[in-house]
Design a protein that fits this description.
By secondary structure, the protein is an alpha+beta fold. It has a single domain, classed as 3-Layer(aba) Sandwich (Glutaredoxin), CATH 3.40.30.10. It is built from ten helices and four strands; from the N terminus they run βααβαααααααββα. The protein has a four-stranded mixed sheet with strand order 2-1-3-4. The longest helix has 18 residues. The relative contact order is 0.22.
Length: 235
Amino acid sequence: MARGAPRFYFSLRSPYSWLAYRELTERHPDVAAAVEWRPFFEPDATSERLLTERGGSFPYTPMSRAKHLYILQDIGRITKERDVPLNWPVDRDPVWEIPHLAYLVADREGLGQQYIAAAYRTRWEEGRDICDRDVVAGLGTELGLDPRELADAADDPALREEGVRLLLDICKDGVFGVPFFVHGFTRFWGLDRLPGFVGHLRERAVPAAAMPAPESGPVGLGSRTTDDGHAGGCG
């Protein structure tokens, strides 16, 4: 067995990560329960400074206009093929620590999965801005959590430090885009690599009890995400 617990690096920003989340939880719930869920987010100036001070460097390159236009077309195709509702959000001066550090608050309270589901629905099905603190506060109210604690998570120094530790793990695990799946030294990048990751874990019986055989049917559609020149590069 490969060393280390399997990890799923997800981003609330990325439509490919959203679709991987849906496929993982709906078609492979046993694997979803077996992996560690790790948020991937582009650092703001404060997080980037803290990351640099600790010897890290975030592996992200802004996408070109052509790549952005391709993603709009590609995600439109995939969601239509899968009959998945889509409402494109508009990000205005996004600070990605706001929704992703709020996830850490929800996860601490045992509601991490519920928060991810609510945040993805809010962003990709309702088209709302999840970097808006009032929107995040609404997610807190929906989940029965302190709305201001979620909305203001990015202002909490302890959560900032935890976020930087997660960014350092991104560097250590060689994560350059999302969705990204890691098990020991084995890595899978992109929505279309999810079936391979599922098969990899099941072959190695993670967790210790053997998992059921993978489902039959078509593999996941879509493209790998985030880095230079490749389809799906929205981080």
